[in-house]
Amino acid sequence: MNSNTYTDREIYPSFCAYVGVRDAGGRNVIFDAVSDQIIAIQPTLVELLDLCDGVHSLDDIYRAHARRNRARRDHADSPEDVRAALETLTDLKVMKFRTYRETKHARILLINPGLPFPRSRYTFQKLTPPLGLLHIAGQLHKAGHDVDIYDMALEDARPADITAYIEKNGTPWDLIGITLNMTPTSAEALRIARNIKDILPDTPLIMGGNHATMTYRDLLRDADADFVCVGMGENLMVSLCAALFAKKGRVEDVAGLAYKVGEAIRPPTPQTERIDFDALAFPAYHKIDLSRYDTNGYIPMITSTGCPFNCAYCSTFKFHGRRVNYYAPHRVVAMIERLIDAYETTKFNFLDDAFTFNRKRIVAICELLIEKRLNIQWMCNTRIDMVDEALLHIMRDAGCEGVFFGVESVEQSVLDKANKRVDFSQVEEVMRWAKQAGLKIRQSYIIGLPGETRESIERIGRFVTESNPGQVQFSMLNIFPGTDYANDPAAYGLEVLPLAWREFNINIPHVRTQHMNEDDILDAYIGLRMSLGGR
């Protein structure tokens, strides 16, 4: 190896995959399970190799080596000797040197993977902008970094297409991120990561999102990710770039970051610091072509994250915790005004999990919209127990056209088992309030929840007919990672059928309940769809 190859870059040594140090009958050896190579090493080298985890630089390793030897009053090898020893191991193909360009302006590629089949197969699949990536890109841009977004779902691109994209753009990105928010895209995300590493083996790769957060150990063990963002990524990505490229902070101190140390997985330290949403950058909508998405003319927005309820079928609570973070009313309205100016539209769709959680905030937003005479039309998602009659009228006066309510079941016992914590008697009342306010109503139901029977499914159909929402959405029970159903299925009387996440399909039931097997769930779903429409 040419010792001058890396003179302008920080060097981060790490073992290759399936390589580790072992004690073989009192002798220290490096064993490579791929090549079957066994290399005897001196005891003094073991301490050095313990630090070769990909997150300690060569300088860090030497300083730690010198510090330990001073404490023992032993002779410390020179920096040149330490480097020479590690370079010998790279020549033997059991170790690799990753280098990070020292810069305050990193070049970053963020990727949104598509679904397993071409878009033409997904008749009912609405393609929406990757809002999470837009928020992260905005924050990275604010920190001085250059960001590209490749929405493979929009481009209907397959994992193999990432090779041509990289070759076409020719951009030497310093960091690549793949969002793995939805479980159905996990197979595509893993294939994309593998293809990236085949052509850019030394470029660090990070995965993040809801599914990645819940399965970070699996990803670090089986996928080609160097890092996994556990939780929200806006501030984490900025901190990681500072540690990797600007020598500000250490990788191991980045809260929420999981990575491998040799073959061991280093779990993340919790992201306990409250995020100041009003200090975050404006989402980078300019990085995508909004006109190409299936938005029906409505610009999607997120004004808050999280939900304080822990429904057994949902992992939002596990991802965000009980805390709900949100933009202040004036910031929400400022974002709306900016989007009106940029896109000449007055239609918005708020995709927050619990938009009306903070009633006082929603009233303030509505008052500002009215005061500024923005005359926008908007929709939102919320829970039955997060609205009241007066609030619905205030929302209508501020331009609200419709509300999406997650009803899920018409049986109180089923809702209780799902830890929904809502009184079904409220549902009929709220539907009446919303209609009296002149709002369009959209309801959703999950078919196959524990406790559901064929008879209760029929009652769902009757209630939908009687309440007559503008739209209804049916989905089958799916067991998503991180949910209470996934963590302890037996406690809910569930039998989860063997399934790798990469084989996951939301339209193929993979669970049995005490009253319904997978065929019963599918038959009930098809029956409701055929009789009532929806999707």
Automatic annotation (TrEMBL):
Domain Radical SAM core: where?
293-514
Q: Which Gene3D superfamilies match?
A: Cobalamin-binding domain, tm_1862 like domain
This protein's UniProt keywords: Iron, Iron-sulfur, Metal-binding, Methyltransferase, S-adenosyl-L-methionine, Transferase
Name the InterPro entries for this protein.
Answer: BchE-like, Cobalamin-bd, Cobalamin-bd_sf, Elp3/MiaA/NifB-like_rSAM, Methyltransferase_Class_B, rSAM, rSAM_horseshoe, rSAM_sf
Names of required cofactors: [4Fe-4S] cluster
**Domain B12-binding, chain residue ranges per copy:** 105-251
Gene Ontology MF terms: 4 iron, 4 sulfur cluster binding; catalytic activity; cobalamin binding; metal ion binding
Whether Calcium counts among this entry's keywords is no
Please report the name of this protein according to its UniProt entry: Radical SAM superfamily enzyme YgiQ (UPF0313 family)
Organism field:
Varunaivibrio sulfuroxidans
Species lineage, top-down?
Answer: Bacteria, Pseudomonadati, Pseudomonadota, Alphaproteobacteria, Rhodospirillales
